[in-house]
Every structure is written in C-alpha cells, then in structure tokens.
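Example A, followed by Example B.
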Amino acid sequence: MPIRQGSIDGLCGVYSVMNATEVVIGKFHYDRRLKRKASQRRVLFKNLIGYLAKNGLLEETLICGFEDIDVKGGFIDIAIKSVKKYQKRKLRKQIAFDTDDVTLDQYWEKLTEHLSQPDSAVIISLSGRIKHWTCVRRITPNALILSDSSGIRQIARNLCSIDMESRDMYTLWPMLTYLLLVERKMG
C-alpha cells in the first residue's frame, strides 16, 4: 500500500489552512501570464513553510505536527494576507470559544451558525482516534463535512466528544477551533 500524504508528516496544519482558504474564496488566484510557481496556491504554501523555517519550527512540525496553528499570529494571518493581496477581500478569523468547557451541543450550534454564512469555513483540531487539523466546509445535524488533506470526508457527530479523551472518539477542542469568513467586498 502506498504511503499517503500526512501518514508520516505533521503538515496537516498547513493543509487545513490552505483548504480553508480555498473554501472561503472559491478558487485560488491564477494568473496565466505568470509561471505556475507564482500561483496563489504555491505562494501561500511557500509562505506557510517559510514561516516554519524562519521560526525554527520546520523539523519539529514535519515530525510531530502542530499544537496550535495560530499561536503568535501564525498561519491564519498568512492566509489573511494572501486573500487581501490576490482577491482584494478581507478574511476574518475568530477563535470559536474562549474555554474548552462547552458541550457538544454548544459546539455544534456555534459551527452551524457560522457555516450558514456564505464564504465561511472552520479549522478544527482533533485528537483521540487521530491527532489532526482539518477544515470543516459544511455541517449537518449529524456530521462535520470536511475539506481534508488526508482524505477524510466527514465525521459523524455520534463519534465526536469534547469532554473526554477516548481512542474510539474524535475529541474536538473548542479553544483550537477557528472560524473564518470572507467579507463580501473590501471598502
């Protein structure tokens, strides 16, 4: 069986930000006059990896992954600058909760409210069955619908938990849940 992206590297945080950016903007900017290496997707990837290298985090992240993708104005701010530069639009981020002491119903309600808006996405941290960062592009009463680098398409609500760590469940982390939204047009 071939080795899949993400099976031995910890770059799911990079891909969660890239996938969330594409969910909120529609498609990455591509200028046919420029060479492929200058597309928004490649520049954003380069900037995210460059951030890790510049801050001495590349080796550890490749091997161990991320604790928090947005610590000290990290990855999401890089995506915000990319959207401003290429789409001339304003991407806003918000931490979903200021505590992890919320119920699964409260968590689901907050994501449902946010994702009901156009040009929105959510970046979440999972543990339990897997330790992983991913992008939620849609939510139903029964599942999180993902745009995910490892191929996970959805996670059933009945397999999610907030208040207990179980290898049989996906543990969601409210304080590591980022709400992203593109404002309609910059002024």
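Example B, a separate protein, is given below in the same form.
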Amino acid sequence: MGYPSQPQDPYGQQPPQPYGYSGPQPTHGYGYQPPTSPPPPPPRRNTGLIVLLAVGIPLLLLGGCAAVGLVLFDSSKDRVVTEADSPVARMPSKQPEANQPPATEPAQQQPQEQPRQEPPAATVGGAITLEGTDPGLKMTVTLTKVINPATPAQDFMKPKTGNKFVALEITLANAGQAVYSDSPTNGAMLIDGEGQQYRTTLFDVREGQSFGGSATINTGDSRKGVLVFEVPEGAKLAKLQFALNSGFAQQKGEWTLS
C-alpha cells in the first residue's frame, strides 16, 4: 500500500513531513537543490608561536646566566675592596693575663750631653791663647804680675773706707789674622776666695799703666797694662777670668792667683 502523493505549494516548496517519515525526499520546485554548507576551514598551524618559544626561551636563559655572573663578579669585587680598606692592625682577641707585665714602649734615646769644657787655666806668669767671636781673632793673654794692694795714682781718688785697690798686670799679643780693637777692662773679672766677683774700676794706680779704656792691636803686635779692681781689705784673691769681645766671647781663660 503506498502513500498518496504529497501536495506541493504553488512555489514548489514541500510541506513539512511528519516525524519519522523515511520516504523519498521531496524536491523543490523547478529542480532547485538546497544549498550545501561550506567545508570547514583547514586547521591553523602555530608555527610562529613555536618559533618564538624556541628562540625566546634560550635567550631568556642566557640573559639570566649573564645577570647572575655580573652579580657574582660585583660581589667579589666589593669583597676585595672591603678587605683592602680594612685596617692592618688587629686588636688582640683576648685581654692580657693579670700576672703578665704590660708591654712598655722602648725608652727614647736621650741625646748624650757634651762634656762641659773647662776654661783654659794657668797661674801667674802663664799664657792662654783665646779666640773671639770674629773670624781670625785670636789673642795670647799672659798674667805677668799681681799687685796687692795697689797705690792710688791721686790722693783724692782713694777706695771706699774698708776697701783697697788690687792691680793685675797682663800682656795682650795678637796671634790671629784679625785686628784686635776692644776694651780689655770690660772682659776681666776678679773672684775672691768666697766666690764673690768684682769688675774693674776706672781708677789708676802708681804700680802700672792702665789700657786707657781701649786698645787696638794689629797682627803680631802686643800691649801691656794693668787691670784695677776695688775689693774689701780682707778679701783673699782667688782667680782672674778674661774673655775677648768685651767678655762676650764663648771661650774664657782662667788664672789661679793663690
């Protein structure tokens, strides 16, 4: 038994078929076939991403290794500089024991004192050669006589009450290359037995001729005169000291009088 032919609409469209119909499919009017769906697109290939990952990952690894190397190099460099800047001295790790004597610094060597140079000494009648401050100034001084007491040259020019005049005769000979021009009376000092010292006076005595305040002596020449002192009558004469340059020369001669 067959199915009746299906009616068609005027435009050739097939009316809807009942559910489960398996008969021949109706055709559209005028032989028109329904459009078929386009074929699915071909699958996309991720070639670019694969290349990017293949190249980028090694580069990232290389960059990370280089950064780590730089950090390690900088760390070692800082360590070297720090060690170089550290002080050389090291503090002791422990305190010295109580019974251990503390370390002492070596004593500074004191400069050795030069032995004191004693002035040239002589007795009455002896000669001493002295040097002055001027280059080439050298004089030989001889104590020839001691007059104790000495007589004033004028009666109205007498020593004070309780004092007396003492005269010491000396000879000055120029043994150097410079001319001696000085006042001999300024460089003389008389010392008694108690250590009291006396300077010359301006008084004259009858037992000898004074230097008149100054003397000029050329090389090879000499002068003789007396040095007059006023001392107590009971003074015991002990020494005569004499120096050139009015007593300012470093070298001094000394004569023992008793």
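On Example B: The radius of gyration is 68 Å.
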